[in-house]
UniProtKB/TrEMBL annotation:
InterPro entries: Glyco_hydro/deAcase_b/a-brl, NODB_dom, PgdA-like. Pfam families: Polysacc_deac_1. This is Chitooligosaccharide deacetylase. Residues 51-273 form the NodB homology domain.
Length: 291
């Protein structure tokens, strides 16, 4: 028997308004990293805590990935956004402090990278609050941005995030421009900076751990990224990236990011900005339009 499924859209928000980008830019590129470290592997099976080679994938971020990425961003004078689970802040405080010292934005990414689920609202609220405590206690940061662990969210949690001071989310896949969430109770939720899944490096560089699919070579990834950028620029959209230091922090993968940013800058009209900057611009445009 086919089950009854509510005919309610997953997203009640109106189509994204066509607000202009600042300073005449044609589009925006949002370089963002999910600093999952070992939580990326603990979420699959907590027994991995004693599987040292599996855990070493995550440990690469503190030993090599983050330092190399920060060196590159510093050299190119780029500010990025780093979404960090609270557990990672507690387990790797020096690594996380180096991100803050680099002048980068730190966003909320859960506590133990638990995937949000409507059936776990009480537990998910605890994850939100525990991570907020870690970010404030260790880093002195009160985040305004949130990226959902494992890319999932729901109306009640969006409302709770808003009430806890989160101004924007970067998790959904349903647009190429920022928009404002509208919740089921009719209230306004956070601004959304939607993700283009083509810019999730995990799909190209680390999927073979659990999948027979091979890694993608540099030429293939750059072809996809540059093609998406070219068309997004023509459409006036936003390129929200989902990079992981245990992937893009690898030698050849960091070269892909370097070449992509070089291409983006070559246009001369691409705004490279943090999530906080993009969300603030959207909110400013909303107010100007009386929305």
């Amino acid at each position: 028997m086919i089950p009854d499924i509510p005919t309610i859209s997953a997203n009640l928000s109106d189509p994204a308004p066509e607000f202009p980008w600042p300073n005449g830019a044609s589009c925006a590129v949002f370089p963002a990293f999910d600093v999952d470290a070992e939580t990326a592997w603990l979420q699959y099976d907590f027994k991995n805590v004693d599987r040292l080679v599996t855990m070493s994938f995550g440990a690469y971020e503190e030993r090599v990935g983050i330092p190399k990425i920060l060196d590159y961003l510093r050299a190119e004078e780029i500010k990025a956004t780093f979404y960090i689970p609270g557990w990672v802040v507690d387990a790797h405080p020096k690594m996380c402090e180096s991100i803050v010292k680099g002048g980068h934005e730190v966003g909320h990414h859960g506590y133990l990278h638990k995937r949000p689920d409507p059936a776990d609202f009480a537990e998910d609220k605890e994850e939100i609050d525990k991570a907020l405590d870690s970010l404030k206690r260790v880093l002195g940061v009160t985040p305004v941005g949130y990226r959902a662990p494992s890319g999932e969210n729901y109306h009640e949690l969006l409302g709770y995030l808003r009430d806890r001071g989160i101004l924007y989310s970067s998790s959904f896949r349903d647009d190429i421009r920022p928009y404002r969430h509208k919740l089921r109770d009719g209230s306004r939720g956070p601004v959304e900076l939607p993700v283009n899944v083509s810019f999730d490096d995990w799909l190209y560089g680390l999927s073979q751990r659990f999948s027979p699919r091979p890694m993608f070579p540099k030429e293939h990834v750059l072809s996809i990224w540059n093609g998406e950028l070219e068309q997004t620029r023509e459409w006036g959209g936003l390129v929200s990236m989902v990079m992981h230091p245990q992937v893009t922090g690898r030698p050849m993968r960091l070269g892909i990011l370097r070449d992509f940013i070089t291409r983006a800058r070559s246009y001369g009209d691409v705004w490279i900005a943090t999530g906080q900057e993009i969300a603030a611009h959207y909110i400013e445009q909303e107010r100007a339009a009386g929305l």
